Amino acid sequence: MDRLQSMRVFQQVVDEGGFAAAARKLDMAPAMVTRLVSDLEKHLGVRLLQRTTRRLSLTPAGDSYLSRLRVILSDIDEADAMAHAHTREMSGTVRILALPVVATHMIAPAVAEFQQRYPQVVLDIHVEDIADPNVEDYDLTVLNGLVQVHAGAIVRTILHSEAVFCAAPGYLQRHGEPRTPADPAQHRCLRLRTPGVRLRAMRLIDPTDGDRELDVEVPAVMTANHTDSLLRATVHGAGISSQPVDLIAPMLRDGQLQRVLAPWITNRLSLVAALPSRQFMPARTRAFLDHRVEHARRTVAGMGLEEVEGAELRPGPAAP
Asked: Which parts of the sequence belong to the HTH lysR-type domain (predicted)?
């Protein structure tokens, strides 16, 4: 049963004073109008209308239900009208906050295509590496899934990803390709450094063997607290590093980088979008968010990553 349609038909029957008149008004078959109202009564488990050969009247339950129903249907019609107006006017500014690596490799490449679709929308992108982002100050905040957001925010997962070992073809020609989990210890490795945390053994995960884990000591010839610095050094042949697949997918495809030590991964990651509230979200913000999701999935297509089917907005976890 299409419950919304049944509600509208029920209201029309009352307003028109009968099933036949409502059918003419709605351009529907009288039998369909009768069936939809009957289905609604069956769903609710209560009779809404008293039917006689001479007249139609509301039952007490029907009268109470209709009074609430009018408000609900009016709100739906108003929401539809607002959405259509925003779509027609698709213009204005979307203020976006993003981590540096996300802005450079995941947002910037999606801008040209978005502007072709919506040339009147201005993107105001703020790039900042911050552990506690103020989501309320922006229309959209794009983060990795490890960053905590406040409970009042709404969060949508853009995609799930994995961190994998990679190196430039030139490096592998000079130093050979690692074949076993112990081999990176003999290579020139570039590692991400978290401020205040000393380097530890790297945890390797084999997704093809029940997520079997190994802790491997991987000495580093270079450390940095900046993912993009490690990535550029890797592309230029400085050594082997662990990078998110969604970040390096274009470089894997065009041959700048080559994945090594497959099927082992070093982490599971996610890219998320946080919004201050789902209420009154401008159409331009929704359009950019949907475009960002679409672009991210096309970027990693064929990389064997888990799809986020029908990703929904959900409340964010409380910030620590």
From this structure: 1-59
Q: Can you state the percent helix, strand and coil of the chain, rounding each to 5?
A: 45, 25, 35
Containing structural domain, residue 156: 91-320
The single-letter code of the amino acid at 121 is V
What lies within 8 Å, CB to CB, of 218 at 6+ separation is 184, 185, 189, 191, 201, 202
Among the listed residues 103, 158, 106, 110, the one whose alpha carbon sits nearest the alpha carbon of residue 129: 103
Q: Report yes or no: 156 and 143 within 8 Å, Cβ to Cβ.
A: no
Looking at 46, 63, 88, the residue that finishes a domain is: 88
pLDDT digits (tens, 9 = 90+) for 139-154: 888 887 766 666 567 7
What CATH number corresponds to the domain at position 10?
Answer: 1.10.10.10
Q: How many residues belong to the chain?
A: 320
Question: Are the CB atoms for 258 and 164 separated by under 8 Å?
Answer: no
For residues 35 and 82, state if they share a domain: yes
234: nearest Cα among 277, 189, 271, 272: 189
The Cα–Cα gap between 57 and 18 comes to: 9
- Which residues are within 8 A (CB) of 60 and not within 5 positions of it... i.e. 6 or more apart? none
Tell me how far apart the alpha carbons of residues 126 and 134 are, in angstroms, rounded to a whole number.
Answer: 12
Rounded-to-integer distance, Cα 200 and Cα 294, Å: 36
Q: Are residues 48 and 101 in the same domain?
A: no
Spatial separation of the C-alpha atoms in residues 180 and 260, rounded to whole Å:
10
Q: Are residues 300 and 176 in the same domain?
A: yes
pLDDT digits over 221-262, tens only? 999 988 899 999 999 999 999 999 988 999 999 999 999 999
Coil/strand/helix, residue 127: strand
Smallest CA-to-CA distance from 289 within 82, 109, 140 is with: 140
3-state secondary structure labels for all residues of 220-246: CCEEECCHHHHHHHHHCCCCEEEEEHH
Please indicate, yes or no, whether residues 155 and 279 belong to a single structural domain of this protein. Answer: yes
Are 163 and 252 in the same domain?
yes
Torsional sign, CA 72, 76, 82, 85: negative
Residue whose pair of structure tokens reads 């959209």 in the numeric block: 140
